User: Which sequence fits this backbone?
């Protein structure tokens, strides 16, 4: 006698598993072992076993009979309906592999093998990307930029249908408006049916008798759109701005895609950005560092005074609060961090040298060395 099959074990589930759990297990295994995706020698056989198990466990009546009589051979569940696994694998190249269609046939959501008509939904348009370069000042304050985007837009003449008029859109005679073609084959297990998009109407369920003169039936026309883009204050390199429905037109009048603006901030000749903080170096003289002073420094919004404390060492970083860049989310400002660089004079007059020597004699050199050793 043929060896009995454990369909639960095949899908890696147990008898208490819900239909949703079975569906999830099937989806994972089907994608793993489909012959178009898996070139292993035993992939086709495993794929057949997976579909065979799913066709039983996903059907409440068949599952009930299966649970009642234990593991059993597939012929016990043959007859009208089911799924022709070998035929499907053979025809997959013609129809295109569509897991969703298989899920519906196994797990509900409308029986694609029945008489109901289910046309393929039109695809939305593709998203577009535009890389925009701005200055650090524009990133800090915000800006408005005008750009031009070449893209395909919905044909206004036919409203995206591609037809000369509504009367020129007719039901597909090949699939009778269903959008799908069914094929039935007789196997040792009974009659099994496969389904795929209709080749005549490409799964739309309708075809165009007379095409629109403007778009030649595509439902789209080429256009360059001028858009005004507002860059928010606080934008940084990598910031994405989404402009809804500014992308490519969708199929047959469906919604267009979106436009994504990717921001790139130019390198500044003075400032460096660290998050929302601004960093720069400011040179001061030895006298300013030793005695203290107030110096004028640049900021992103103009100039401001910075107090240099008496005895400031070279490399000291002074903080100018809220002189940085605003955070787009918290609306809090960063700081400006100023690194003080004490400049050593390279050319001194005779008098300057004498003054420095007199100053050196007043220093407690021993205390200086004590700090190092």
Assistant:
């Amino acid at each position: 006698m043929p060896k009995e099959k454990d369909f639960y074990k095949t899908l890696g589930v147990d008898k208490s598993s819900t239909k949703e759990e079975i569906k999830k297990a099937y989806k994972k295994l089907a994608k793993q072992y489909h012959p178009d995706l898996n070139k292993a020698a035993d992939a086709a056989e495993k794929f057949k076993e997976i579909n065979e198990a799913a066709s039983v466990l996903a059907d409440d009546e068949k599952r009930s009979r299966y649970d009642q009589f234990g593991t059993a051979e597939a012929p016990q569940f043959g007859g009208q309906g089911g799924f022709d696994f070998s035929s499907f694998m053979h025809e997959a190249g013609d129809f295109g592999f569509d897991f969703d269609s298989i899920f519906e046939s196994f797990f509900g959501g409308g029986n694609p093998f029945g008489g109901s008509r289910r046309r393929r939904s039109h695809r939305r348009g593709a998203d577009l990307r535009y890389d925009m370069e701005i200055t650090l000042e524009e990133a800090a304050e915000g800006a408005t930029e005008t750009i031009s985007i070449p893209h395909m837009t919905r044909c206004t003449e036919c409203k995206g249908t591609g037809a000369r008029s509504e009367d020129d859109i007719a039901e597909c005679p090949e699939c009778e408006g269903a959008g799908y073609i069914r094929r039935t084959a007789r196997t040792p297990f009974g009659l099994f049916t496969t389904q795929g998009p209709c080749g005549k109407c490409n799964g739309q369920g309708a075809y165009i008798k007379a095409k629109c003169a403007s778009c030649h039936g595509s439902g789209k026309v080429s256009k360059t759109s001028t858009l005004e883009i507002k860059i928010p204050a606080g934008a940084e390199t990598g910031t994405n701005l989404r402009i809804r429905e500014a992308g490519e037109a969708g199929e047959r009048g469906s919604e267009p895609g979106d436009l994504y603006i990717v921001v790139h901030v130019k390198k500044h000749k003075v400032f460096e950005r660290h998050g929302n903080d601004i960093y720069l170096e400011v040179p001061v003289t030895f006298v300013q560092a030793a005695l203290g002073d107030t110096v004028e420094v640049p900021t992103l919004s103009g100039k401001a005074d910075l107090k240099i404390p008496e005895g400031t060492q070279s490399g000291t970083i002074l903080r100018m609060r809220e002189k940085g860049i605003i955070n787009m989310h918290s609306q809090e400002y960063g700081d400006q961090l100023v690194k003080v660089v004490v400049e050593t004079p390279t050319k001194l007059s005779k008098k300057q040298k004498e003054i420095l020597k007199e100053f050196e004699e007043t220093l407690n050199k021993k205390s200086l060395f004590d700090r190092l050793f």
